[in-house]
């Protein structure tokens, strides 16, 4: 069947066609709404007596409030090589500490072996001592403070950055 009604519309199409048999299409969309506008929307979507048909197939639209997106606890500004906490205070890291933290943030969720970190950040082709990475991770953790526990130690393997929502990398 290659009729006009069988051809699907494009996702961004504004074209409309009548549906067969008076079918009803439900469209669900997500919007971020301020609390001030939420009250106005609730008034609009609250059914008024006598305005909606009394059929079981009609469903009243529901509004639910989503939590506001959290601000990242740490911002890494790549171009000026600066790290800022959520309160605006700067974290002072050495060049290698900055590069190591940036590498972990750009490759989150993976366990990175000490030797691969030495190769990626320090450009060492042979691993002199894996304690170098451990010392730098310890210094980064102490400079970030206890509230920012971003880097996870995977015992016997290496390190991983898990909490990606706490960090925002800004490239400018």
Give the CA-based shape. elongated
Would you identify the regions where 5 or more consecutive residues have pLDDT less than 50? none
**Would you report the number of β strands?**
7
The largest β sheet comes out as: 4 strands, mixed
Mean pLDDT, as a whole number? 77
What is the fourth-level CATH superfamily of the domain at 74-170? Winged helix-like DNA-binding domain superfamily/Winged helix DNA-binding domain
- Going by CATH, the architecture of the domain at 74-170 would be Orthogonal Bundle
User: Which radius of gyration do the C-alpha atoms yield?
Assistant: 26 Å
Which fold does the CATH topology of the domain at 74-170 refer to?
A: Arc Repressor Mutant, subunit A
Quote the beta fraction. Answer: 5-15%
In CATH, what is the class of the domain at 74-170? Answer: Mainly Alpha
Give the ordered list of helices and strands.
Answer: HEEEHEHHEEE
From the structure provided, what is the oligomeric state, counting identical versus distinct chains? single chain
Q: Helix/strand/pairing class, anyone?
A: alpha+beta
Strand order of the largest sheet: 3-2-1-7
First-to-last CA distance? 53 Å
Helical proportion, percent range? 25-40%
Q: Provide a count of the helices.
A: 4
């Amino acid at each position: 069947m290659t009729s006009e009604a069988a051809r699907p519309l494009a996702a961004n199409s504004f074209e409309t066609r009548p549906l067969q048999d008076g079918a009803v299409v439900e469209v669900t969309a997500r919007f971020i709404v301020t609390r001030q506008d939420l009250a106005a929307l609730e008034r609009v979507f609250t059914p008024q007596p006598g305005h909606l048909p009394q059929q079981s197939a009609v469903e009243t639209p529901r509004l639910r409030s989503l939590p506001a997106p959290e601000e990242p606890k740490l911002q890494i500004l790549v171009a000026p090589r600066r790290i800022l906490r959520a309160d605006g205070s700067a974290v002072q890291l050495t060049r290698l500490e900055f590069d190591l933290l940036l590498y972990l943030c750009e490759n989150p969720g993976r366990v990175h072996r000490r030797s691969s970190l030495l190769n990626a950040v320090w450009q060492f082709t042979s691993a002199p001592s894996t304690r170098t990475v451990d010392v730098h991770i310890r210094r980064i953790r102490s400079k970030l403070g206890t509230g920012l526990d971003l880097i996870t130690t995977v015992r016997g393997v290496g390190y991983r950055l898990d909490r990606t929502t706490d960090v925002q990398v800004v490239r400018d």
